[in-house]
Design goal:
137 residues, mainly alpha, two-stranded antiparallel ribbon, 2 strands
Amino acid sequence: MTVDERASAPRRTGMDAHIDRRRILPAALAELLRAAREDERAAVGSQRRPAYLLTRNIISAALSAGFPARTVAEELGVTTESLRTRAQPGRIRLTDIALLAGLDVDRLRTRCADAGVAVDEGGIHSDDLAAILLDGP
């Protein structure tokens, strides 16, 4: 057997394909994380605390949806330890999501209804964020 023959051994496509998909964040979630990070950087004064909290909630949403901490951390340019420390579940206002994602609030409400996500006082729980972002156009 030559070196070339050993290098071209067939790959197990089933498991490898599953692992590769788990390492990639869906575009909608990645864009929302980046927008939240930029919102944090631009915030000043009394805007800073809500901006940081929103990013913490979005990080928590990504982790609770099952995306690996390493993948989310790479998207934000931080360590996994920093990411896990910052993750904080909580309520997210639909207006904040709409602003960061560039979506209409009514469209988000429709997505919530389609996904069976309860909207309470204009917001949802961070654990439900992935369901409304990743379902639908």
